[in-house]
Amino acid sequence: MRIESVRTVVTSPGRNFVTLRITTSDGITGLGDATLNGRELAVAAYLTEHVEPLLVGRDAGRVEDTWQYLYRGAYWRRGPVTMAALAAVDTALWDIKAQAAGMPLYELLGGASRRGALAYGHASGRDVPELLDSIRAHLDAGYRAIRVQTGIPGLDSVYGVAASAAGGGDRYDYEPARRTALPVEETWDTRAYLRHVPTVFEAVRAEFGPELPLLHDGHHRMTPIQAAKLGKSLEPYDLFWLEDATPGEDPTALRLIRQHTTTPLAIGEVFNSVHDYTPLLQERLIDYVRSAVTHTGGVTAMKKLLDLAAVYGVKSGMHGPTDISPVGQAAALHLDLAIHNFGIQEYMRHSPDTLDVFRTSYTFADGLLHPSDAPGLGVTLDEEAAARFPYAPAYLPVNRLTDGTVHDW
Ligand code: CS2
Ligand code: MG
Question: Which superfamily does 3-104 belong to?
Answer without folding.
Answer: Enolase-like, N-terminal domain (3.30.390.10)
